[in-house]
TrEMBL record:
Its main location: membrane. It comes from freshwater metagenome. The chain crosses the membrane at residues 12-35, 73-97, 109-128, 134-153, 188-215, 235-260. InterPro entries: BP-dependent_transpt_permease, MetI-like, MetI-like_sf. This is Unannotated protein. Pfam families: BPD_transp_1. Keywords: Cell membrane, Membrane, Transmembrane, Transmembrane helix, Transport. SUPFAM superfamilies: MetI-like. The keyword Transmembrane helix applies. Gene3D superfamilies: MetI-like.
């Protein structure tokens, strides 16, 4: 058991280090960039040097500056999309969990239909309808993930409401809002927080996919996905332009997955008791 505890503790630590590093890059980009992201004075496809640590792209723009802006976009999309998914998903999930049978079945059917569509496909349809922009991408990704959060919330709420202590609380005259605050939310948040962490990484990956397809943040923004798309034509002559944003994306997904694994052990009381 100690080995399991140690592994999960290290998972959380390593995940936090990775995400903290990306966050630090994002914060620095808010106040300082080595070059403006649309500056083309660096020379086309210049190799790494002291003036351009990772070189330049096919238009002469500094890759470090564009990667820093990409980190900003990835984190802002992740936080915003998870916030939207959490608000919409928790609301629908709670409503389905407490609703009468006919309403519960109707909401469940709606959630099943939404889940049947891949999040990226649904996001592509919404962005295509609203127009390509960072706001549209955030809204589309958050709405696409909300069905997953809602479905999970409904299952967790149903499980908690079937417990004997809920029946005892109702028998003692406790109101439903108080039951939600005192019993439902404390019992469902350990699982939900892990899901939120996982959805954060998926949101960043979805935004990169949309930007790669030209449906994300428009120029001069520099999403990691758009950097990959731009580097596609010059990958043989300047591989660093494709490798760097790809590594950042991989680091983001691995980091949030490691954090989710560590949070699962910390937040879930059943896992704590099994140690």
């Amino acid at each position: 058991m100690n080995q399991v505890k140690s592994r999960r503790s290290w998972s959380l630590i390593v995940g936090l280090v990775i995400i903290s590093t990306i966050t630090l890059v994002t914060l620095i980009s808010l106040v300082w960039l080595p070059y403006p992201i649309d500056n083309t004075d660096g020379g086309r496809l210049s190799p790494p040097s002291w003036s351009h640590l990772l070189g330049t792209d096919k238009l002469g723009r500094d890759l470090v500056a564009r990667l820093m802006v990409g980190a900003r976009i990835a984190l802002s999309v992740g936080f915003s999309a998870v916030l939207i998914a959490g608000i919409v998903g928790l609301t629908l999930g709670m409503a389905a969990g407490f609703a009468q049978r006919w309403l519960d079945e109707s909401l469940s059917a709606l959630l099943d239909i939404l889940i049947a569509f891949p999040t990226l496909l649904l996001a592509m349809l919404i962005v295509a309808a609203r127009g390509s922009s960072l706001t549209s991408a955030i809204f589309a990704i958050g709405l696409g993930m909300s069905a997953i959060i809602a479905r999970l919330t409904r299952l967790l709420v149903k499980r908690v409401l079937a417990k004997d202590f809920i029946t005892a609380s109702r028998a003692s005259g406790t109101s439903w809002p108080r039951i939600i605050v005192l019993h439902v939310l404390p019992n469902i948040w350990p699982t939900l927080i892990v899901s939120f962490a996982l959805q954060f990484g998926l949101a960043g990956l979805a935004e990169a996919s949309l930007s790669y397809l030209g449906l994300g943040a428009p120029p001069p923004n520099a999403s990691w996905g758009s950097l990959l798309q731009e580097a596609q034509a010059t990958v043989m002559t300047s591989p660093i332009a494709a490798i760097a944003p790809g590594l950042f994306l991989v680091a983001l997904v691995i980091g949030v997955n490691l954090i989710a694994d560590g949070l699962r052990e910390i937040a879930d009381p059943t896992l704590r008791r099994s140690r």
